[in-house]
């Protein structure tokens, strides 16, 4: 039977507090953690849990049926979703293959990364200017750089709802660093509008010390402006503002003119408990579907699941392939006049990771004339149509889905075999 993941829950934090109090009043310490109540979903098998939250890959055809005739917007967590969880947070570098897939996705659908990390740090990891980025659990949002939208001007979506907390967060960071300097394996991360204390690399007996340091740092400043949240082997101090990944998702949909539109479906993919806020917003507003990344049984508001970042990549590749379909409303009149516009470019290496053989470019919205464009740098000659290596050129008319399949060779959707 699969069990829930190792992230701390409310009852676990209460147990830790109780142990800390007993340790301070007793000369002896117990290395055995107290028993805890199982979560509701921990009493079922993984197969039973996945029946409630089906695999997005094996149900990809169903997902496509839900997207038929809709404009898709994609929202992604970073750590544990686009990259595996790693011992050192500074080593969570995006792979070249995943970067190519996300680039292809962002060319066809409005795409955002919403992370608990600082926004600049995530931008440095990802290195894609086509994306919308929301750092600090959505408290620091910025739109794509140098991207012209349908109206002809850059979309200004910069927003920092907790900006006035920054001086306080700076002080909390310094204090927490001082408190944890002697705790082996601990790591304090400044994420602009929140501070994260990681204990993934700490020996088990030091986990309590990390939690205690966070609790004492918060207690020393009162409990009026800051709060504690938990994630996967991390405890965080954040401002007490009514803002989270779900509200950030809503803000971005609003900025893009996509909020509460009947032909818009949003997909959010994430692995951590803070991503549940986004899953719940989509569910409550009937705006789309959450996809949880987890190989463990856990309570979730997500509709679908995948088990690890490799499966996320397969799923995203499938969406990039589907972008050329007539079922994608961004292909038709539904995109006319929208704030965001697709580039209508289908890059074989971006979609599948195989050698590039063709590129479909919109004659109106092409960025391929940019000398810094990756394909241009690779020596591909672009014209207003479908370009093949060697200068062969086809009609400028947009390829239909079946023609595209014939041109590229038939490719099965993920999970179809």
UniProtKB/TrEMBL annotation:
One of its GO terms (molecular function) is trehalose-phosphatase activity. Pathway: Glycan biosynthesis; trehalose biosynthesis. Coiled coil: none annotated. The keyword Hydrolase applies. The keyword Metal-binding does not apply. Its cofactor is a divalent metal cation. InterPro entries: HAD-like_sf, HAD-SF_hydro_IIB, HAD_sf, OTSB-like, Trehalose_PPase. One of its GO terms (biological process) is trehalose biosynthetic process. It catalyses: alpha,alpha-trehalose 6-phosphate + H2O = alpha,alpha-trehalose + phosphate. Removes the phosphate from trehalose 6-phosphate to produce free trehalose. Belongs to the trehalose phosphatase family. This is Trehalose 6-phosphate phosphatase. It comes from Chlamydomonas eustigma. The lineage of its organism: Eukaryota, Viridiplantae, Chlorophyta, core chlorophytes, Chlorophyceae.
């Amino acid at each position: 039977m699969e069990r829930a993941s190792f992230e701390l829950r409310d009852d676990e934090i209460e147990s830790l507090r109780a142990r800390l109090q007993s340790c301070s009043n007793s000369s002896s310490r117990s290395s055995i953690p107290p028993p805890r109540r199982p979560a509701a979903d921990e009493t079922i098998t993984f197969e039973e849990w996945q029946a409630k939250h089906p695999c997005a890959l094996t149900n990809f055809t169903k997902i496509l049926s839900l997207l038929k005739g809709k404009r898709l917007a994609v929202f992604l967590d970073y750590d544990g979703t686009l990259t595996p969880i790693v011992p050192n947070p500074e080593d969570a570098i995006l792979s070249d293959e995943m970067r190519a897939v996300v680039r292809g996705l962002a060319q066809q659908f409005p795409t955002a990364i919403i992370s608990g990390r600082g926004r600049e740090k995530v931008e440095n990891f990802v290195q894609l200017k086509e994306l919308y980025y929301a750092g600090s659990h959505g408290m620091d949002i910025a739109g794509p750089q140098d991207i012209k939208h349908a109206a002809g001007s850059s979309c200004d979506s910069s927003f920092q709802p907790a900006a006035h907390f920054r001086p306080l967060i700076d002080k909390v960071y310094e204090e927490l660093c001082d408190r944890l300097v002697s705790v082996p394996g601990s790591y304090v991360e400044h994420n602009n509008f929140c501070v994260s204390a990681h204990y993934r690399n700490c020996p088990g007996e030091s986990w309590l010390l990390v939690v205690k340091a966070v609790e004492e740092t918060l207690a020393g400043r009162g409990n009026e402006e800051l709060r504690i949240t938990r994630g996967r082997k991390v405890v965080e101090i954040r401002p007490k503002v009514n803002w989270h990944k779900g509200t950030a998702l809503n803000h971005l949909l609003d900025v893009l003119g996509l909020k509460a539109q009947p032909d818009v479906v949003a997909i959010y993919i994430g692995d951590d408990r803070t991503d549940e806020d986004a899953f719940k917003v989509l569910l409550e507003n009937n705006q789309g579907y959450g996809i949880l990344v987890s190989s463990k049984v856990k309570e979730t508001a997500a509709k679908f699941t995948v088990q690890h970042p490799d499966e996320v990549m397969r799923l995203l590749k499938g969406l990039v392939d589907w972008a050329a379909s007539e079922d994608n409303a961004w292909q038709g009149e539904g995109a006319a006049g929208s704030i965001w516009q697709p580039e209508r470019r289908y890059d074989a290496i971006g979609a599948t990771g195989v050698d590039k053989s063709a590129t479909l470019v919109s004659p109106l919205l092409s960025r391929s004339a940019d000398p810094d464009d990756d394909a241009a740098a690779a020596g591909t000659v672009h014209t207003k149509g479908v370009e093949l290596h060697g200068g062969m050129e086809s009609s400028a008319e947009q390829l239909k889905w079946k023609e595209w399949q014939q041109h590229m060779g038939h490719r099965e959707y993920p999970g179809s075999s």
